[in-house]
Amino acid sequence: MASHPLHQLQDLQRRTGTDENALPCVRPRKTDELQVHWASSTRPQPSGRPKISTMRTSLLAALLAALARAAPSVTIQNGTIVGTSLLGVDSFKGIPYAKPPTGTLRLRPPQTIDTSYGTITSNPDPLACPQFYEQLSTSKIPESILAEVLDSPAFQVAENTGEDCLTLSVQRPSTATSDSKLPVVFWIYGGGFEFGSTNIYDGTDFVTKSIELGADVIYVAVNYRVSGFGFLAGSELAAEHSTNLGLRDQRLGLQWVADNIAAFGGDPDSVVLWGESAGSISVFDHTVINGGDNTYKGKALFRGGIMNSGSIVPADPVTAPQAQTIYNAVSTAAGCGTGANSLECLRNVSYSTFLAATESVPGVFGYRSLDLSYLPRPDPGDNFFAQSPELYLKSGEYAKVPVIIGDEQDEGTLFALSLSYITANAEVINYLASYFPNNANAHRDMTEIMATYPDEPLLGQPHGSPFNTGSLNNIYPQYKRLAAVLGDLTFTLMRRYYISLIWQDVNVWSYLNTYFHGTPVLGTTHALDVLVDYGDGPLELTLNTNAVQEYYISFINHLDPNSLGTSAPLIEWPKWSHSSGKPQLLDFGATSLSLITDDFRSSS
């Protein structure tokens, strides 16, 4: 039997005298395929800091001839897909899973493809769904770290966009056959339900790691509609059940996997969801959609979930005042007014007109920050997502699958950057209370909460976030306090609440990332974990990349992050439990892994 290309590579390194320890970056990354829109007005020059999966062009050129193989092809229900193969990983990108949501299908649920598309060739740069373009002020971020911060997917918005975007990508070990029955991980990207695409992420490094571990996985990533194209609400859309379209896209993508992944060598009965930020919230939502019924054709669509920075997001119905206000603003900006025919008008205006209209409301990096304009909202008239998601948990209506869930230490710093106009404690309280327009006691509640975050601007808000940084990093008087409370309310509190409702019924493992603790202003902020998880972080965090990938691959294969072994530097990751003492988290630190109790700031 021919040896695996990774083994060929190692042999080539030995024969050519190349020090394999000096070549830690032989895995391909996404850079050459990606065009991005930088959210800052100017992109800084790269800092020169080496990244884990950076590939030398000369090395790649030397290896191509030795490692090339015939273009792989897979035949599924709708046709044949011809992919590409490199370094032991086959890639099939830009596979349509739904009809183009254009014309009369704009602002409607995704439609299954019911015709053959013959033979299609893998597209390394498929259209991303229309993005919400906005500017983030970076004037308060030191130039020395700006390049690294902007390398995060949280700041990358694809430019190659269009409405015909409902595609997915499949990446697999090149040794896979239709009989392999490999476990599948289904990636859902984040981006505040405003932006994101499969192009920003490449599963090559992750699949390669699974091969190295002898625990092969298949990686699937789904494009879904975001911003006003995917999450516009209002009574007009509710009347025809055309709500939560981005979630419906994801669900149809999962059904595509159930119908077709076996042809790629995957096991449709062994699918694990994985998402970050809005993608993580989506993973949770899929456990409660249809009242927790996650079956399709009598079988479960997934058997586990990995949730990075996001879970429960309580929300008012699609017809509530805030949702209707956003619909009215978008429709008015598009020239369609707010009358009975406004929805039909929105379907008929030009793409550029509708795109501009969807950007006429506040964005996640704007003055409303995490009070999102676009997000999943309950539609009581439709069983798909009929009530605020926490209500499903309280009644036990959720898919009882094991999960990994965790946060960054400083989740809120990124979202507090744009709130420098808030300079006093009273303004903080008023701002946060405005997040809860239906709570008559919101001002009182926020006053009590903020009393647990000491207001010490002259000392640099030493109790704020980035945490444990003393007087440093308080770039405006209330920055660190706002960052702390935004991160705790949105992420830490919701994670703990979610786990408290499920841990006795399902296995849960939880974590905290602290490895970017020393980053000025931001600390270990939201979305920086994606760089590490995908092998694109700095070289000094190789430990964390290897660890998190091994834990996740173990979970995808065995529904237990410890099953592949926990020899050093890995440690045994305990389940989250109140059964014997305080629950524990796995802390991914800068130089080591450790266990900590999940009780920090519990009095807040």
From TrEMBL:
Chain intervals for the UniProt region annotation (Disordered): 1-24
EC number: 3.1.1.-
PROSITE patterns associated with the record: CARBOXYLESTERASE_B_1
SUPFAM superfamilies in alphabetical order: alpha/beta-Hydrolases (SSF53474)
Primary localization: secreted
Keyword Translocase included in the entry's annotation: no
Enzyme class: hydrolase
GO annotation, cellular component aspect: extracellular region
GO biological process, any: lipid metabolic process
Sorted UniProt keywords: Glycoprotein, Hydrolase, Lipid metabolism, Secreted, Signal
Domain Carboxylesterase type B: 71-584
Compartment(s) of residence: Secreted
Gene Ontology molecular function terms on file: hydrolase activity
Gene3D superfamilies documented for this protein: alpha/beta hydrolase
Entry-linked InterPro entries: AB_hydrolase_fold (IPR029058), CarbesteraseB (IPR002018), Carboxylesterase_B_AS (IPR019826), Type-B_Carboxylest/Lipase (IPR050309)
Keyword Hydrolase part of the UniProt annotation: yes
Family to which the UniProt record says this protein belongs: Belongs to the type-B carboxylesterase/lipase family.
Identification of the protein by name: Carboxylic ester hydrolase
Organism of origin: Teratosphaeria nubilosa
Lineage, top ranks: Eukaryota, Fungi, Dikarya, Ascomycota, Pezizomycotina
